[in-house]
Amino acid sequence: MDYVLIILLEMLRAVSWLVLLASGLAIIFGMMRVINFAHGEFLMLGGYITIMTHNNGVPLWISMLILAPLTVGIFGILVERLVIRHLYGRIIDSLLATWGLSLLMIGGVTLVFGNTVQGVSTPFGAVSIGEYSIPLYNFVIIGFAAAIMLATWAVLKFTKVGLVARATMQNPDMAETLGVRTTWVYMATFGIGSAVTGLAGGLLAPLTGVVPSMGVNFVGQSFITVITGGASMIAGTLSASTLLGTVSQGVTFASGPVYGDAALLLTALVLLRVLPQGITGRIFKKSL
Amino acid sequence: MSLLEVKGLKASYGVVPALHQVDFNVNAGEVVGILGHNGMGKTTTLRSIMGFVKVTDGDIVFEGQSLKGLSVNARARRGLGLVPQGRMIFPTLTVRENLESGIATGKQPMEPIIDEMLSLFPRLERLLDRAGGALSGGEQQLLALARCLCRKPKLMLLDEPTEGIQPSIIDEISDTLKQLAKTTDITIVLVEQNLDFITGLSDRVYAISNGVLDRQIPEEQLKDSRAVSEFMGFVT
């Protein structure tokens, strides 16, 4: 029984992990149809800010929950103003530009901090479930993943800002005729997507440590989740994370992490073969 | 002083010229029609006024000020509203959300404005929770009009509001616009191919042909759609 509970909790953590990794990318891709290939490096930046500021005396929670999203959000706005806004509607060009940005960020961070892993200890310790124990920090990951999804849904569904964002996403020209400054909406969307990515990077840093090339490990999982989810930002991220996280963690428990990763990829491949528009291209079509 | 003056307007899509010479004016409170065959430049004229099409020469003056260099959203905030061809309803937003999107950038409370629109377009009331994309063409047209009117535009640009719409709804649109023109100070520029609709609604009608708009159809001919057809060369 304890073992089953542990497996279920680990599956929930794996789902939450994917939600955290993919949320920022889903916001940017879902709203703007811009593929941010530097997404992994935005995560890395959030992680570095958390660890560096904490190592310089800032309390961990302030580093993780305030400084990381704030800094990466502002960085995202700068990137949107300087690079992305010139490339709207040019999906390949924006992909190449953000790939270049990712290389620049890896090089820059390596130059400043070196190429060694840095980290902080995971807060809270562990809790025992029967003869097993599980890190309490897993519940923080699960809580924040749920909070990010819930907050994004609530903002989009119940606020004027969310309504304007959804209208812009569906038809920017029409939104303009209704007085919407769509360039501001895009800038804010990229900033918010980046901030969420920074927050995810901050939250993951105690678990993974940070190294300049760490983004490469995460960008694949993020993209697979977003593409498998399809066009609906929240329903897509949640459904894809749930499916992929459950399958990969289940296989990890049965056969080890390498098989778990392979199962994740295989599930995504089969799913995209059957549902080329992603999960929300067929079901939950009208969801946010 | 005219509310809108379009002077010597030339516009192009890239290197392809679309408007060669467009000159007309609209006084406050008027309904002005623009009549022409397909591809003559009617929609381009409205899209140029709204700021979607690159103007290569001439000027558009609204309330005495040139609109040159202003973005589409800045023109909308100045008081221009567009009901585009094809309606451009936000398909996954509900009817209520479509209406709210017309007011969302302002600070005014939404409910009184939506109630006002529902009294103007009662057919929309039972559809409030339905997705915009699930409405019929006629219902979408009513919604597009209501969404535009939510912003209380000083000048409403209407692009072929009867296109592909069932006759009963055309009558409903016509009645509503007549009521609006009579009871409010709204000014309307209407682009149409439907002779009865445009002559029944407009105070003045201009003819556009091959990107040139400079002829006003004589007032005495306006009440006779056959005379208008002859003026336009629709009949021989």
From TrEMBL, chain A:
Gene Ontology cellular-component terms listed: plasma membrane
Pfam hit, one: BPD_transp_2
Keywords: Amino-acid transport, Cell membrane, Membrane, Transmembrane, Transmembrane helix, Transport
Any single biological process term in GO: amino acid transport
Matches recorded under CDD domains: TM_PBP1_LivH_like
InterPro entries per UniProt: ABC_transp_permease, BCAA_transport_permease
Subcellular location: Cell membrane
Topology term for the membrane: Multi-pass membrane protein
Domain of life, per lineage: Bacteria
Gene Ontology MF terms: transmembrane transporter activity
Stretches that traverse the bilayer: 12-38, 58-79, 91-114, 134-156, 184-205, 258-276
Record-stated family: Belongs to the binding-protein-dependent transport system permease family. LivHM subfamily.
Protein name per UniProt: Branched-chain amino acid ABC transporter permease
Species the sequence originates in: Rhodalgimonas zhirmunskyi
TrEMBL record, chain B:
Superkingdom to which the source organism belongs: Bacteria
InterPro entries per record: AAA+_ATPase (IPR003593), ABC_transporter-like_ATP-bd (IPR003439), ABC_transporter-like_CS (IPR017871), BCAA_Transport_ATP-bd_LivF (IPR052156), P-loop_NTPase (IPR027417)
Keyword Nucleotide-binding: yes
GO molecular function, one term: ATP hydrolysis activity
Record PROSITE patterns: ABC_TRANSPORTER_1 (PS00211), ABC_TRANSPORTER_2 (PS50893)
GO terms under biological process: L-amino acid transport
Ranges for domain ABC transporter: 4-235
Swiss-Prot/TrEMBL keywords: Amino-acid transport, ATP-binding, Nucleotide-binding, Transport
UniProt xrefs under Pfam families: ABC_tran
Family: Belongs to the ABC transporter superfamily.
PANTHER family found in the cross-reference section: HIGH-AFFINITY BRANCHED-CHAIN AMINO ACID TRANSPORT ATP-BINDING PROTEIN, HIGH-AFFINITY BRANCHED-CHAIN AMINO ACID TRANSPORT ATP-BINDING PROTEIN LIVF
Protein name stated in the entry: ABC transporter ATP-binding protein
